[in-house]
Amino acid sequence: MAIKKGNILSIFGVKGGIGKSTLVLNFAGICEILEKRVLILDLDLYGGSIALALNKEPKKTIFNFVDDYNNNRYNNVKDYVTNYSKYIDFIACPKDPRQANKIDSKYIEILLDKVKFNYDIVLIDTTHILDEININVLDKSDKILFVVSNDMFDIKNMRSLISIFKDLDIKKYKILLNESFRTDKEYFSLYDIKDVIKNNIDYLISSKFYYKNIDELIINGSIPTLNKKTPSLKDYKILESIILDINGDQNE
Ligand SMILES: Nc1ncnc2c1ncn2[C@@H]1O[C@H](COP(=O)(O)OP(=O)(O)OP(=O)(O)O)[C@@H](O)[C@H]1O
Ligand SMILES: [Mg+2]
User: Fold this and answer.
1) Which residue has the CA at smallest separation from atom 13 of ligand 1?
2) Which CATH architecture has domain 7-246?
3) Contacts of 77 (CB under 8 A, 6+ apart)
């Protein structure tokens, strides 16, 4: 019997601070609810937040994987994985940003080839820069979720990104408009945004998903979608339908 490979899903955007990492955590929480094994790979190599947000001290990080692989000390990919809950694992970013310089994208490809058979979904948290690592990661991903905020510069830069993908005839992306990380910035209508980026907006996370107590959740290492105290649990149905849609499970 063939072993089923998990989908590699990258969350990418062209602006920092627009809720990408929070979405990654929330999607992982939905995977836990759906009993799907999920690995979060923190590729914000210089300043990732996943281990901190989950309040877990990783023994080893992606840097140790690269270092061990390079020096013939590599044994098993599980050595670099930190467990969070029954269905959620993560691989942390380097502890020291100086280690990030030593991570070549070819090792990330090797790492992805090793982990994808152990999970139903591999969720990759990225930075907002289209550097060599991110280009390779996006290439390697089965699906990409572009996150855009309701911000003039972000929308303009998203238009450029989409046009690059259209030029390359790459269609494996979906676009999510995230209005949940602040409540005071909804200048442009959906119509305006679609018109500027010349693409459909596939998903919208509205400011209803703004969590006033997010810092408290982070300090406690709690994922909002798994926390009963967070408001409007029924709205998580939207996140659930996004992850099922993008993962191609909608008709299962
Ligand atoms: N739904 C939300 N409700 C309240 N605050 C939020 C929400 N989503 C994100 N935030 C806050 O907004 C800030 C940016 O979020 P986050 O770190 O997820 O964005 P990011 O795009 O990953 O940023 P970076 O580019 O720095 O990696 C954080 O302080 C986070 O706690
Ligand atoms: Mg982030």
Assistant:
1) 17
2) 3-Layer(aba) Sandwich (3.40)
3) 65, 111, 114, 115, 118
